[in-house]
Amino acid sequence: MITVHHLKQSRSTRIIWLLEELGIEYTVKSYDRNPQTHLAPESLRKIHPLGKAPIVEIGEQVLVESAAIMEYVITTFAPDQLRPDSESDAYATYLQWMHFAEGSAMLPVLLDMFTADLNLNDAPVLYYAKKERDLDFAYIDKHLQRYEFFAGSQFTAADIMMMTVLLFATGRGMLEGYDAINEYVQRLSSREAFIVAAGYE
């Protein structure tokens, strides 16, 4: 049995969405953020020393990091689903977007959120963050003008990884004018597995 330790308003929704798409049985243990600090509860540290979501228990394994969890789940339970064949040209594109989500795209979005929460509206880092967001979103939008999904014509785990970033950005009003991204977000938000995962918020 797979247990997903789900922190509300976090990346752990990705894992629930993935499991729903794959039709794999799982259980969810939900946790609320501290209403004052917006941080995860200390109880998550009893599951993993980092105390950050997502945390997934699979047998004796206790795993963190979205992309690592998703790759492990696919490889272990559904090696022929939600990723291109490793011999295909699409596989390299898939890997790029799997890691672009957290390696490049998420940080500029989070910097805007953190500085706003701290009332640092004139912080120099905001100019850096906006420049990087503009670069990232223009790149993403151009890609989605050409392709139905991030890996091409096939819905994959890379879409789940990237959707989290795009949903965070949507919530901050960052995607105005990026028509291809907005169409993509609307289209994927209607997937049944996404709706189930979003219901845990």
Q: What report would you give on this structure?
A:
Belongs to the GST superfamily. This is glutathione transferase. With 201 residues, this protein is an alpha+beta fold. It folds into two domains: 81 residues, Glutaredoxin (3-Layer(aba) Sandwich), CATH 3.40.30; 108 residues, Glutathione S-transferase Yfyf (Class Pi), Chain A, domain 2, CATH 1.20.1050. It is 53% helix and 10% strand. A four-stranded mixed β-sheet has the order 2-1-3-4, covered by helices on one side. Helix 1 packs parallel to helix 2 and helix 3 runs parallel beside helix 5. It starts with a strand and ends with a helix.
Q: Which terms summarize this structure?
A:
single chain; 201 residues; alpha+beta; Glutaredoxin; Glutathione S-transferase Yfyf (Class Pi), Chain A, domain 2; 2 domains; 4-stranded mixed β-sheet; 53% helix; globular
Secondary-structure topology with pairs:
Layout: E1 2-7, H1 13-22, E2 26-31, E3 55-58, E4 61-64, H2 66-77, H3 89-117, H4 124-146, H5 157-171, H6 179-188, H7 192-198
Parallel strand pairs: 1-2
Antiparallel strand pairs: 1-3, 3-4
Helix pairs in contact: 1-2, 1-5, 1-7, 3-4, 3-5, 4-6, 5-6
Provide a brief overview of the structure:
This protein is α+β, with helices and mostly antiparallel strands and 201 residues long.
Helix percent reads: 40-55%
CATH architecture of the largest domain: Up-down Bundle
Number of domains: 2
> Could you name the CATH topology of the largest domain?
Glutathione S-transferase Yfyf (Class Pi), Chain A, domain 2
Radius of gyration: 17 Å
The largest beta-sheet arranges its strands as 2-1-3-4
